[in-house]
Amino acid sequence: MHKKLTKDGFAAMSVDLDDPDDEKLMKNVRDFLKEKQATFQNFVLNEQLEVWQQKLGINGAPAVFVFGRDGKVAKKFDEGVNYKDVERLVTELLKKKE
């Protein structure tokens, strides 16, 4: 989606929720991102489980937050994310110029 829609103003980022101090996990994350050619911004969250669960309102990954051009959350997808639904919403939002 990133490669396909960047020209229309789409921006993506990923946030990993694994323990940043676990080097084996971090290697797996880096390998996965490289394999998927995730050339957008990738971050590792450095918060305790209870903190990010409460702040983000999710129990775990995967979750997708789609923001409109106004910077507000347009929709949160979690628990059984359907990426076709995500892309459909993103495409709709990109048509709006404001």
Tally of individual helices: 4
Please state the second-level CATH architecture.
3-Layer(aba) Sandwich
Mean of all residue-level pLDDT scores: 90
Sheet having the most strands = 2 strands, parallel
Task: Give the termini separation.
Answer: 21 Å
Can you give a write-up of this model?
The protein has 4 helices and 4 strands, in the order αβαβαββα. The protein is globular, with a radius of gyration of 15 Å. It has a two-stranded parallel sheet. The model has no long low-confidence stretch (mean pLDDT 90). It has one domain: Glutaredoxin, CATH 3.40.30. It has 98 residues and is of the alpha+beta class. It has helices at 2-5, 23-35, 49-56, 83-95; strands spanning 13-16, 41-44, 63-67, 73-78. A hairpin with a 5-residue loop joins β3 (63-67) and β4 (73-78).
Keywords for this structure?
single chain; 98 residues; alpha+beta; Glutaredoxin; two-stranded parallel ribbon; two-stranded antiparallel ribbon; 4 strands
What topology emerges from the helices and strands here?
Layout: H1 2-5, E1 13-16, H2 23-35, E2 41-44, H3 49-56, E3 63-67, E4 73-78, H4 83-95
Parallel strand pairs: 1-2
Antiparallel strand pairs: 3-4
Q: Short description, anyone?
A:
With 98 residues, this protein is of the alpha+beta class. The protein contains four helices and four strands; from the N terminus they run H-E-H-E-H-E-E-H. Strand 1, helix 2 and strand 2 form a beta-alpha-beta unit.
